[in-house]
Request: fold
Amino acid sequence: MADQSIPEAPTPRTPGTSKTSGTSQASGTSGSSETALNDGVSENAVEGAAEKAAVNEGISRRSLLGTAGATGLVLGAAGGAVGYAARPAEATPLTSLGAGQVMFHGKHQPGILQGLQARGHVVAFDLAAGAGRKEAAALLRRWSETAGRLMAGAAAKQDDTDVARDAGPSSLTITFGFGHSFFARTGLEKQRPVSLDPLPDFSSDQLDKARSNGDLWVQIGADDALVAFHALRAIQKDAGQAAKVRWQMNGFNRSPGATAHRMTARNLMGQMDGTRNPKPTDNDFDQRIFVPESGSKDPAWMANGSYAVVRRIRMLLDDWEQLSVKEQEDVIGRRKSDGAPLSGGTETTAMDLEKTDKAGNLVVPINAHARITRPDQNGGAAMLRRPFSYHDGIDTDGVPDAGLLFICWQADPLLGFVTVQRKLDRGDALSKYIRHEASGLFAVPGGAAEGEYVGQRLLEG
Reply:
């Protein structure tokens, strides 16, 4: 869980603007309905008050209710993209976070540059016995078509489940990648990137092989749980007889608009998680995160792609929560309240690694997580973190099975994740309170152009 800041979430598109996958998040205060419900007022009472207010102001009831939970958001309609929503043609279009839309086709695949999403699923597939390159190409073609339709707010082409019928696109993203084993299964070993070599073993690893790796990997994210689940079912159904699910993990983040102002996310330890994430405005952002179009050791089909490291990191919350706030802050190296470094300032203030207290002790402990993961302590190594929290219930011994679905992106895993994780292995104070239980590394090709499917340049090259 390296100390990196989260990218900003996309702003819902307003009428007349271009459909982009921007990276700025517009979050605001919780809506009136949420506040009322928290105060014990019934949902019917809230809707009744909203309807009365709408009549007084000349605003449609649906339009007002659509924005009730998203005060402060930059709102707008998704036009034809929400045609799947169950509404008459003359009705007011969706004007809440459900209207947010991310484009499927583009230079990079969706689900990398967008901000953290409220709900996510990550799932790995293995090709079926006897399935090879031909079947894989057909599958990626089906998946790409389905992803394009669902991300535009339309129904799946066949056997749609209607789960998302009443919702807009909700900033849905669907991302596809290839595991190390995929290339042998399809006879494409010569096209397998060197960067996809298996990750080394680490001291905190207690990996479950059944929940690690896989031939194919899919990441799904959305600002609505039903929209995300709808996409998951569609992808699973599209796999048909060509591939079977190897493992699936489900995660969540804070919902857009749940805080009074835009802020870095918190993880299940209560810590701000993601303060130093590289930003697209950084001069070297593309160099660190994406494979270049030329001059790379990677094969040509990986141009504009990236490598995703996926780790299921169990948080030992019972042990962690026994620590005092001061002890927790010393483990991380930052204040729990606002994410500021222990050396002083605000969340974005540069950490003073040499500052000492009156007794001559380092203010930021030598083994603090935030100190160890700094790029300037790791030869400039950096990765774009885009995780989800997870909670899978309680173990038989009463211990919560909860933690982080750690997902990070980089142009070269050896220079990104591996470099930082090796440093953490040598003495990170946080290692005592976490356990890596599953792992995967996937090559995620660049985005598909109009008329293409993801991976076409590999499978038909």
